[in-house]
Amino acid sequence: MRIDGEHLEPLRLRNDHDDEPPARPQATRAAHAYEPPHAVDEHAQRQILAFLIARESLVEPDNDDTLVLAMTKGAEAEAMALAKTAHGHVTVVRGGPGMNADAADGSARSFDLSTREGMDGFAATLGVPSHVANEVSTTLSMADIAERDELAEIAKAWAPAERGERSPSRLLVSGHGGTRSVFGDQTGWVNFSSIARLAHAMPNAAARVEDVFVSACFQGHAANIDVWIQAFPNLRTVHGYRSYAPERDITNIRTWEAATRGHAERRVALPIGNSWTRHDGFFNKEQQLHVVRRQVAALDVFDSHFKGEEPSPRSGALSNYYVAIKELENHSELSASERLVWSDRVTRTMYLRHYPGVAECFAADHAAVLRTGYASLGTNAPDFSRMGRKQALEAIADAERRAAALPPRPATRELLRVLRELKELKSDHGKNDLRFP
What we know:
The chain is an alpha/beta fold. The chain has helices at 42-55, 73-85, 116-124, 130-142, 148-162, 192-201, 203-208, 222-231, 250-259, 289-299, 302-306, 317-329, 336-353, 355-365, 367-376, 389-404, 410-424; strands at residues 2-3, 6-7, 11-12, 66-70, 89-94, 100-102, 110-112, 170-174, 176-177, 181-183, 189-191, 211-215, 237-241, 273-277, 281-282.
């Protein structure tokens, strides 16, 4: 486990008076359990065997270990608190902005995950069968470069299962909630689909996971939970929040840990939460799509806040609208193309809710461009960090008028580019690159 750069042994703390259920013997697969026809290629054979192993529950969880993906400082505090009372090992994967991964075999080597050579080299240190290592490397290559280091650490925690050894039966994911993803405070992000692909690459580890809890905002919707159901074939429970999650969710996480010990299939009552169990399904059913659309339309205050006609508080009408569009964005019946449209609206609404912080970071991130750009217009740069939304839009309009009256210059063009980012709350290339503290 790594906390603030220090390496710690996996934590195993439990009360002496707690009785753990006896370990179940692991089932083994007979060598003749499946005989693929010669017409099936080697890759397909491996996929079929992995599917059979997972779906027939041939590798059963035998522990109460928990793997924690902690993307924020608050999530790290949750992990440390969990380790004090949890059954089993608590292994923490800490979110970070790096692109390197240390070798899994204990050597001092480090691998650059921005290259295929580095990904192959890292996967080779996992001590797993070659075809599993290849699948892990391929999974890393398919992931965004910002999430590969976290995925590599998860692969380390899961690798023992691919050798017939112990791996965690529970997964806790904690951080800020994105669109079927979790992110940290300038520490990158991890998409749930990437974890699911890693689970597919490491089927024995995936077969051991029984319980998942996502302590992040807006991750308890049915479509989000379904990602985990599809990833882990022996899953018993999933928990998450349909609205905002507590910043340091220690109490609920400890309750979840106690409720999911052994092979229990218990729900935990979360504030504005949702859960799924293998036998009883979802606790909160998804509303019909047309009902959710009506709620969004009734609560729509985006334009007035976008134009700066209203303050942008983190609570009140804009916050209520944000909750409604998150529910629409996560609806299982929404088409992929429309989901992209609403994901963009969700992100820009989030920036409006945090606009003072967005303006502060914008001014700091683009200080040099603002200084030289406004100098090319013959004036000094205004202090966007102290402006409200309406005042900032007026300043941007003034800069655009000044630029239109002058010959084009590189500094002016760059200034207009970054100002459009603040004006539209997204960049020219369509990505949402703004940030806030």
